[in-house]
Amino acid sequence: MSTMNRTRLWHRFAALPVLALAAAVLPAPAATAATATAAAPPEAVLELPEPGGPYRVGVTDLHLVDRHRADPWVPERRRELMVSLWFPAASRGGTPDRYVSAAESRAILTEFGMTDVPADLLSGVRVHARTGVRPLARPGGWPLVVLSPGFSQPRSSLTSLAEDLASRGYVVAGVDHTYEAAAVTFPDGRVAGCSVCRLEEAGKLDQEYLVRGRAQDISFVLDELTRRRTGVRVDADRIAVVGYSVGGAAAAAAIQRDRRIDAGANIDGTFFPAITKDLGRPFLMIGSDLDRGAANDPTWAASWAHLTGWRRWLTVTGSTHGSFPDYGVIGDQLGLPSPPLSGERATEITRQYVAAFAGRHLRHHPSPLLNGPSADYPEVVFER
């Protein structure tokens, strides 16, 4: 498959979960109206799963500006990022966070061509982190996990994974890569849309350029979180980067360029480019069964050969590319048809295996889950 076609697949796969959400509220053809109504009751409650760790979760947003770097897509501007920072909270209190604003929901749905659905559909999703709460102090700071989302998807699309990791004792930085997400809202009210999506649609997007830029974004976020006071202390000696889809390619690029990163993970993303130099630090690959099987993406096999440190390649049976971000579990709650593996189950598997990976390599905890097949998660196949 050409790199141009793979880029178009990014966009199509990223859109699938939202297209499914929209199906819940679009008028059904007469032959299927009863089925659609039964499957997607209007009173459906949209809520992300409860975090699985012992800590309450707080969240705050950071507005970061790299004064030393031009924006890769709008060179007349400095590179400007919005980052959500999830963390273990000292107490409950505060205010429930919102998943996305009504304006952001509208932009996300519009980006996927869903203009005949309630514009605020995604703004009603309930989350568990709270704003306005104090971080729980820890001597030396908390281990840090940076999350990079899929192409055209905002940082909010990985909220379930972020909340779960924070509840287990990590600071989690979800990065919005400006002009690469459907909507990035800045503190002054400006909203940056996905101008890069227009390049992709025209077949003019250089994927390797995009991934290099994301890796630079991640390094800049590390600079800011380890050198400045944000109110949340991180341990600069324990850092992992995890990405989904093109964010997974960015995680691979970031760990290769930045020695501060101790471990990396690619969740179902083509490597742009494949890893060609030996990488001795831990790396985890989690792939979908139906879209990224062991034989379906040559960049996975090519990269695997150069992972010379701890490594795992896991395939989640019954999953598709769209199974891993939040939209899969939201679709379940709307009663929509799902892949063989439900969104709820895919979310549980993703959380458990990423947490085991972070625990093993940032906390040096035993992680039997990563040693081989598990009776608790028979869907997870250990490749190679």
From TrEMBL:
It comes from Paractinoplanes deccanensis. Pfam families: PAF-AH_p_II. The keyword Membrane does not apply. It comes from the Bacteria. This is Lipase. Keywords: Hydrolase, Lipid degradation, Lipid metabolism, Signal. Residues 1-30 form the signal peptide.
